[in-house]
Structure to design on (641 residues):
């Protein structure tokens, strides 16, 4: 109808739309709008509260924490715990380990994932669906904890960086994101480059990679955050304190506090303050870069969802 | 070279050559699909070199452990073969089948998995719908940024936060004391563990979980809403008849994935949070398997449990996928 006589109907439609909107806005919808806003604000407060509480506890005195007085603002201001934790050499050794593990693991993971995804994105590649299949299958069925553990030990990875950086080198989820990105890469560019005499390697390194910086950055962040946060591989395969990442340092603090609480000693509160300080120091780098990297993550997830 | 290219590029624009181009392409494709492995390797050997390391990786670190599951049926001796020494049949399966602890952790797993699926899974949908109603872009973005944040925290941090909040001097007990009740030592009472677990899951995952739904919401055609409004549909009816069906494919895919990981409930989080006092509710298949396997060294026994769990997981995801494909037409593949 609209297409047959647009000029006559469009204003009508707009009028209807406007009248509907004003009717809705004046009644229950207005109430809903404010209730919704208030509710979402509450969600934000609840989400942020634990972090604020953590910071407050980190700067409070042990006595105030023990008395249950600390919630939003520090009581009995105290920074000696910060000084104490930061003067612990082991904390910094473990922190450095986290940085080293994250960097090495991310480099390996990126090299593997990028090349794998690039090859899998070539639709004409013979055997492509087979290779995609063996990768995707591992998403739904895996060897399980014990066979993995035995394998890593028999490879001699125990107490070495390889136990952390190798076994998680390919995340199939990230692989599929990259694959769908490369599939949408304009083929003309690659064709032109190969006519210019570049081999597959040349096209990949000089044409495709430089033009994929955004998706590569996203993948680097995906991997880096997951390696930065990981603890279980180190927990399983490392038993020397100087090899731990900082997550294990923190985990051991928590475990010590829990067992103390079981025994009913009053060291609990001291541990509570130390825990808070350590957590604040561990979380700090993530919180600092978070506002800048968040949108890359969102775009990465979207990219993955396009493929479905 | 460059001159050739420019000629090629300019000639492409002339209509005469364009009609010639497609048949060539088609012929090439036909030849490709029927080519032998030898031709494929000769032509694309450089691409295949890209596959070598990743495939070796998958074989060693993914498929070898799968094959390693064989020790569930074989006697394993530390220091012996990775695949065990001799066959014992279903000995280890019978062993856990008759183990009352296994059934306790099995039902704990089912309960925690069901609670997660029933409570945590729908919440991102609700939050996304509420966010979708927000007209102020600034406010919407602020809410998103804040609620995504917990997703980026290490599970160790999350566990630490949970322990802090639930401790005797923590915030929750401060509130309880403020209303005049006695403090509760949450982490020593099995009755509270499920609540705490689900609560921390909500805190950490719900905000991030909205992303895919928000993306799906933007793809719904505005004309549908317009038509519904003209037909007299109110806000709620619009949500029910247009918005929800619009994001149904996303919901189904995520539901299938969630069902697949149903039994793998938060292993790392529980391992960090629980203590022997909480075993009656907190101990799940994966943590039990960890204690029996890694801590006590009963490798074959715990591999049998792990294999059982993995097969159930695979069955669940395959059947959920098949059901979803038949009923609503959306599936993973």
């Amino acid at each position: 109808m609209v297409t047959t006589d647009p000029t006559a109907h469009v204003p009508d439609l707009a009028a209807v739309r406007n009248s509907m909107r004003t009717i809705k806005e004046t009644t229950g919808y207005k109430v809903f709008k404010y209730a919704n806003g208030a509710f979402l604000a509450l969600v934000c407060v609840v989400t942020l509260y634990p972090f604020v509480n953590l910071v407050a506890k980190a700067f409070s005195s042990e006595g105030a924490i023990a008395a249950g007085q600390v919630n939003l603002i520090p009581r009995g201001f105290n920074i000696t715990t910060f000084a104490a934790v930061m003067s612990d050499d082991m904390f910094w050794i473990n922190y450095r380990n986290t940085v080293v593990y994250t960097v090495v693991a991310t480099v390996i993971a990126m090299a593997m994932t990028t090349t794998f995804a690039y090859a899998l994105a070539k639709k004409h590649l013979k055997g492509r669906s087979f290779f995609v299949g063996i990768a995707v299958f591992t998403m739904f069925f895996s060897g399980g904890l014990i066979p993995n553990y035995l394998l890593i030990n028999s490879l001699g990875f125990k107490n070495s960086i390889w136990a952390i950086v190798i076994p998680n080198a390919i995340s199939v989820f990230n692989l599929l994101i990259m694959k769908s990105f490369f599939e949408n890469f304009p083929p003309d560019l690659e064709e032109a480059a190969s006519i210019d005499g570049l081999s597959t390697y040349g096209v990949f390194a000089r044409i495709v990679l430089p033009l994929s910086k955004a998706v590569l950055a996203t993948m680097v962040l995906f991997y880096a955050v997951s390696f930065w946060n990981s603890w279980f591989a180190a927990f399983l395969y490392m038993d020397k304190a100087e090899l731990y990442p900082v997550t294990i340092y923190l985990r051991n603090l928590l475990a010590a506090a829990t067992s103390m609480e079981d025994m009913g000693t009053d060291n609990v509160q001291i541990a509570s303050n130390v825990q808070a300080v350590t957590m604040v120091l561990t979380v700090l780098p993530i919180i600092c870069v978070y506002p800048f990297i968040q949108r890359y993550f969102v775009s990465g997830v979207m990219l993955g969802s396009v493929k479905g | 070279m460059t001159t050739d290219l420019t000629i090629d590029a300019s000639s492409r624009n002339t209509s005469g050559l364009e009609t010639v181009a497609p048949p060539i392409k088609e012929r090439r494709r036909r030849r490709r699909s029927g080519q032998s492995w030898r031709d494929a390797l000769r032509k694309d050997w450089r691409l295949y070199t890209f596959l070598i390391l990743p495939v070796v990786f998958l074989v060693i670190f993914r498929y070898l452990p799968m094959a390693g599951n064989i020790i569930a049926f074989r006697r394993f001796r530390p220091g012996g073969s990775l695949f065990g020494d001799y066959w014992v049949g279903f000995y280890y399966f019978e062993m856990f089948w008759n183990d009352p602890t296994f059934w306790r952790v099995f039902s704990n797993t089912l309960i925690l998995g069901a609670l997660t699926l029933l409570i945590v899974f729908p919440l991102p949908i609700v939050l996304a719908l509420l966010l979708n109603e927000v007209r102020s872009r600034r406010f919407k973005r602020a809410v998103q940024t804040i609620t995504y944040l917990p997703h980026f925290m290490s599970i160790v941090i999350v566990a630490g936060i949970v322990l802090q909040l639930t401790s005797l001097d923590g915030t929750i007990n401060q509130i309880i004391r403020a209303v005049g009740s006695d403090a509760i030592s949450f982490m020593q009472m099995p009755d509270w563990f499920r609540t705490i677990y689900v609560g921390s899951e909500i805190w950490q995952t719900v905000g991030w979980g909205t992303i895919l739904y928000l993306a799906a919401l933007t793809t719904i055609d505005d004309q549908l809403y317009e038509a519904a409004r003209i037909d007299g549909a109110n806000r709620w009816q619009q949500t029910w008849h247009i918005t929800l069906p619009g994001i149904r494919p996303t919901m189904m895919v995520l539901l299938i994935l969630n069902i697949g990981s149903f039994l793998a409930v938060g292993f790392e989080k529980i391992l960090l949070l629980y203590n022997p006092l909480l075993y009656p509710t907190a101990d799940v298949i994966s943590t039990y398997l960890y204690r029996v396997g890694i801590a006590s060294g009963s490798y074959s026994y715990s591999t049998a449990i792990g294999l059982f769990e993995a097969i159930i997981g695979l069955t669940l995801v395959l059947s959920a996928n098949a059901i979803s494909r038949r009923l609503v037409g959306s599936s993973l593949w």
In short: Confidence is low (pLDDT under 50) at residues 1-11 of chain A.
